[in-house]
Amino acid sequence: MTSTEAEDPPVAETIERFAAAAAKRVAQARDLEELDALQSELTGRRSPVAGWKRSLGGLADAERRELGRLLNEALERVEALLAERRVALRREARASRLDGDRMDLTEVPPGAGPGHLHVVTQVREELEDIFVGMGYEIADGPEAESEWYNFTALNMPRDHPARSIQDSFYLATGDRETYLLRTQTSPVQVRLLERGSLPLYAVAPGRVYRRDTADARHLPVFHQIEGIAVDHGVTFGDLAGTIETFVSAIFGSATATRLRPGYFPFTEPSAEFEVTCAICGGEGCRTCSQTGWIELGGSGMIHPAVLESAGVDPEEWTGFAFGFGIDRIATMRHGIEDIRVLLENDVRFLAQL
Amino acid sequence: MRVPLSWLSELTPLSVDAGDRQAVRELGATLDSLGLVVEAVERVPAPSDEVVLARVLEIAPIPGADRIRQVLVDEGTGEARRVVCGATNFAVGDVVPLAKVGAELPGGMVIRRREMRGVASDGMLCSARELGLGSDSAGLLVLASTGAAEGPLPGGVELGMRLGEHLGLGSDVVYDIAVEPNRPDCLSIAGVARDLAARRRLPFELPSPRIERRGPDARELASVSILAPEGCHHLLGRVVRGIEPLPSPPLVARRLLLAGMRPIGSVVDASNYVMLELGQPSHPYDLDALGGRGLTVRYAAAGERLVTLDGVERRLGVHKSAGGEEVEVEDLLICDSHGVPVGLAGVMGGASTEIGRHTSSVLLEVAEFSPLVVGRSAKRQGLRTEASARFERGIDPEGLERAADRFCELLAQAAAAAGASPPEVAPGDLDDHPLRQGRRMVPLRVGRVNALLGTSLTAGEIQRLIEPIGFTEPASGGKGAAGDAGEEGGGHRRPGAAAGEVLEVGVPSYRPDVGGEVDVIEEVARMLGYERIGRTHRRSPFVGTIGERNGLQRRVRRLLAGLGAHEAWTSSIVDPTLHRRAGHLGELVELANPMVSEESALRAHLLPGLLAALRHNAAHRNGEVRLFEIGHVFSSPAGGEGRPDEREHLGVLLSGPGDDAVSAVGAWRALAEGLGLDEARIRLAQGSALPGPWPPISTGMHPTRRGLLIAGNEVLGAVGEVDPEVLEALSLPASRRVGWLVVDLGELEATPRRTRSVRPVSRFPSSDIDLSFVLDDSTPAGELERALVEAAGPLAERVRLLGAFRGGDLPRGTRSLAYRIRFCATDRTLTDAEVRELRSACIEAVTTRLPAALRG
Asked: pTM to 2 decimals?
């Protein structure tokens, strides 16, 4: 059968033969291009079916109706087959395209990746956020301090025995006033009090210095956070409650706190505060020397002499202060056995946290 | 302070058995709660049950051996036991300790049957040292001498008896207590016992020594006088004669050992024992070696010398200051009557009058020295002794006589234990007491106690807490205040009921730390127990805030971490040499007392520390890294006076793959964008555009690849690359480019931010024009861009540099810069004519203002 214009009307048998042959060819079409050509050959204006349709005009009504029906049926069948084949070929084409796109995502080489905040910063920011949540402001102060702020105003006059406890790095300034690297964040207390705006609720995180040889547990340069609250009627009970609050915020509510008498010249009564040992959960282990408690920091009611030297009337205002090591919390939390790693800046360490 | 339980129990009936772990732990917890922090608990076993008393029956040589002998002993079984022994200080009839086979000695040695020179030794005879009962290892511990292998034994001696039982030594516990500087009273067993007794509501009594005095009056035998009353407030001299060289009794020796001191001989041991027990140091002088048989106390002349007991010659009265000059200082000397120094007061005695084997008469010095004077001498000499530690913090000025008596009593006991004749304590005391202190009284407001602690204690309750530690109301004789009885009867506390009440509290002489009301309030809290003060949760009335600077730091950190930089933390104490190598020219703030020269100055820049960190990472093959740090840097104060100038810097070191000045500028732009800085108001200035010379903030940077960040008239920071010479000087490869950005955070905080109100985004189409200009390398692109921005005016949505092109047909030393400008109006579509006009204006502005030409 060819696609030449048919002048004679077909017989039913011819139509049937055409449809069968068309079905075979459609099924054999290999790609969409071939299918497009086939479609126009089988169903287009120059197709046998089109010719046959034109030849029906001269036939009697009954015969024309009958042949027309047969032709339409055949055409519909061929078109359905073409559509079906088109869907199949499209699917095949997409599959082969996708197959060409195939990619092993585990084969991707690692990029540089984002940097990390220092673990001390991470702990410091977490602590700051806890205190901000408790209504405290964040304050800071200079690291090179005068003796006045670091000692004298903190109730440690010259020759006070406590000055020698913390061996200090003094600065060779050749000045009348003696300057040193602050041994604690407590001088910020005095600077805040001197601002003269009370009540006052603040924490001051920062770097401090002690004349110590570096070892696994000590660095001559380290970080502390100092807290201070001065208001009408602040009590020792408030101090104990506040410590309890922030300790459970840092370590979780399962961690208990206890206070025991200690000595700091700038607080009275003074207290060391301890938390449940995180290693043994309070059962007693080597880390906590079998006591079940780990010493965290110092605290106490601000000594009246400190308030007075900053121009605050201790009869009207009372307050508490506390301080503890930030690096120590970092080492406790991350199981860092040698604190010196904090200063090494080895990216194999930095990138872990 | 090492505190043996048995010693504490002698002063207060603690009823804690050393073997009862629970009770021992509880006592430790009580000490903690009193602020006497237990740092360690050491369990001391009793002497082994296998060490028994035995009498020497026979001593015979071993053929061929001259260092050891064979000894037959009787341990009460009637059968002789043969042991080999190297000691020679004993005779037939002496009773000595026998460690039987299987006995374990302190230090872990287990006695076994041994054969020496063909003689089987069935045990060992022990010295005091081997038994942990003294430091004498030269001979056996001879417990009694009977003179014969048979016959009666002295009372209390029974052959075969266990040594521990004989000496009354059981197992013990030593608490190692950290004593805070404000508790000098607890540098003594008695002080610790007093606190414990008060907390446990037990009776407590200081030892009341009984001594017998005879012979001539002390004032006929010796003399004392104080020539420096501000340095020595009180000097008590005690003369004891007829002393024999004896070891201390085992109990004394063992306690000294447990407390961490070495027994030496009965005289020195007695002085040490008294110091440990009562906290009062004393010093015995050999009276016969003392010139003029007397003591005087005076300050040292400048440069005066003294050889102390440790054999060191000390130069006194002068001290080298930090600046290296010698200044005169006050060192207090104990001298003989001729003025010859025999001791550094309160610190250490002199070698010349040391107690020795030939000492028969002793002049005991018991004194009260000025804490400051002793403290400074000890510090200058680097000689902190048990005595100086106590004087420095303040001893009990009322305890001198008791200490002297106790010393004499111990000497008498040592003589009695050894069967020696009792020493002779001279009647009458040598006493110079120029400076007396009255009892200090502190008014204690009951209301204030409760206001500060958050408690509701009554006057009576407060008194009952602090009376047992010596804070008494002398007028009422330690009885509760009037009005308290009713409340007690009522059996309840009313908060504030006692407000207005004031107690007059006497401060005990052994608490020099207590000065005012608040110190007594601490004692109230301490005796009550901090754990018994109720916790309250006070709220701050404020909304908390992290503040400007902290917020800035946080954003900076996160932006830089996003660029792949790790945050570093380098030390602020640095090596000046390293700073100089990194290009620092000025002075550094130096430490007056550095530990080592590599850490002797404060950093003026972050760059050297970060480069060192880079080197560390390179050495560990950690690949190419980016690091940043936020930290303080220091420089000498302007004008040389006052606190060092201290600034907070941000340093960003970029040494990742392909990093260079371009990455540094990129990092700066990302930072400026992320912080919302108004970039239009910050200039990146180089070369001729600089307002002045390069400031120190650009130290260590590549001379032709650096620029300053300038906002208004302030230098914000610098950006570019590290000088290859600096890299080389710090042993880093100079061939690698390292990007560097440094910013002064204080200046950055003050830099204007972009306005908060937003510009509307146009809904109309935009038009782009591309312009290329050829200009000299010396004309900064930044200037061209500024001219374009100005000429393009408000209709320019953005002006973007597409790139620079060099070479080709362009003359050397010039480049072509291509810009794309996008125009857009918010209210209409711009016409072609309008855009053409803007284009001409841009070209006009650039070519007239700059030596630049439009490229073809």
From this structure: 0.84
